[in-house]
Amino acid sequence: MKHLAQGIITRRTELSESYFLLELECQEIAREALPGQFIMLECKGETFLKRPMGLSSADPEKGVISFIYHVTGKGTRSLHSQLIGETIEVIGPLGNSFWKEKNARTIGLVAGGTGIGPLLMFGNWALKNSPETEIIGFIGAKNAKMICGEKEMKRFAKEVYCATNDGSFGYKGFVTDLLTEFLSKNSLESIIACGPTQMMKKTAEIASERNLQCQVSLEEHMACGFGACIGCIAEIKGQGYSMICAKGPVFDASEVVWKESNL
Ligand SMILES: Cc1cc2nc3c(=O)[nH]c(=O)nc-3n(C[C@H](O)[C@H](O)[C@H](O)COP(=O)(O)OP(=O)(O)OC[C@H]3O[C@@H](n4cnc5c(N)ncnc54)[C@H](O)[C@@H]3O)c2cc1C
Ligand code: FES
């Protein structure tokens, strides 16, 4: 069930260059949120629309949720200027969640940018609820300073590999090239990808070529976040156009019709 709630900012932690983890006290959402779900968050300042943010944790006992943001534009700049103790309006939890394939013992998590957030929540969920699951993490970034969430992922993953476009840390190249190289010598039973659309599209191709189950968390500009404005569509095979916020954001990658834009 979604709630319109007031979240109190309790902590901001810098994870890497312009990537921050924000913790909010918000009992209603913390009690119910699942990995893969998101919130719509008031950013104040000049922004009228709330911004969707994928949850990176939800602690029902402490009543605290968190998400990772990257300072990109108006909304995130304004969010970044808000102080500890300030209250912001939040709607959530929204959307569907990642699912664990029954027979998947080894799962690859492929993250780009703030896509790391929902994958951290999934990994911590798996550690608690499915401890036999082996997680292998893949994190991509432009350069070493922008690698986000490696330390946090190492808390639950058996191995974590990083790729940077300029080779300043880990593998030189795209995280999807690193995934291809890994799969030439090792196996995975399932993949979950969250990050830029091109990264998820390529991950979907890699999975399809190897017959691996793959989930992706799609992103589109969102105005409402719960199916009221029809502003966030994606074409899904056999279903026509679906609203990402209501039917997703998590989809089976093999069902997504990948395009430059759906609008
Ligand atoms: C389901 C979902 C989960 C998300 N989770 C997170 C998260 O955990 N952390 C996070 O930082 N961001 C997340 N986003 C993106 C976020 O909602 C904002 O769009 C983004 O932070 C930029 O907002 P802004 O107001 O700072 O930038 P704006 O001033 O709105 O835009 C700055 C630039 O970024 C582009 N842009 C804005 N939104 C998107 C988008 N969704 N996709 C591609 N380009 C875009 C604009 O076209 C513009 O060029 C998520 C989006 C979705 C749909
Ligand atoms: S954001 Fe309004 S329908 Fe998806």
Automatic annotation (TrEMBL):
SUPFAM superfamilies xref list:
Ferredoxin reductase-like, C-terminal NADP-linked domain, Riboflavin synthase domain-like
Statement: the UniProt record of this protein carries the keyword Nucleus: no
Per UniProt, the keywords (alphabetical) are: 2Fe-2S, Electron transport, FAD, Flavoprotein, Iron, Iron-sulfur, Metal-binding, Transport
Where are the coiled-coil regions? none
Please indicate if the UniProt record lists Transport as a keyword. yes
Quote the InterPro entries the UniProt record gives: Cbr1-like_FAD-bd_dom (IPR008333), Cyt_c3_hydrogenase_gsu (IPR012165), Dihydroorotate_DH_ele_sf (IPR037117), Dihydroorotate_DH_Fe-S-bd (IPR019480), FAD-bd_FR_type (IPR017927), FNR_nucleotide-bd (IPR039261), OxRdtase_FAD/NAD-bd (IPR001433), PyrK_electron_transfer (IPR050353)
GO MF entries: 2 iron, 2 sulfur cluster binding; flavin adenine dinucleotide binding; metal ion binding; oxidoreductase activity
Q: What cofactor does this protein call for?
A: [2Fe-2S] cluster; FAD
Binding residues for FAD:
75-76
A Pfam match is: NAD_binding_1
Q: Which residues form the FAD-binding FR-type domain?
A: 2-100
The superkingdom of the source organism is Bacteria
Q: Which GO terms describe its biological process?
A: pyrimidine nucleotide biosynthetic process
Family, per entry: Belongs to the PyrK family.
Protein name, as recorded: FAD-binding FR-type domain-containing protein
Species of provenance: Candidatus Jacksonbacteria bacterium RIFCSPLOWO2_02_FULL_44_20
Organism placement in taxonomy: Bacteria, Candidatus Jacksoniibacteriota
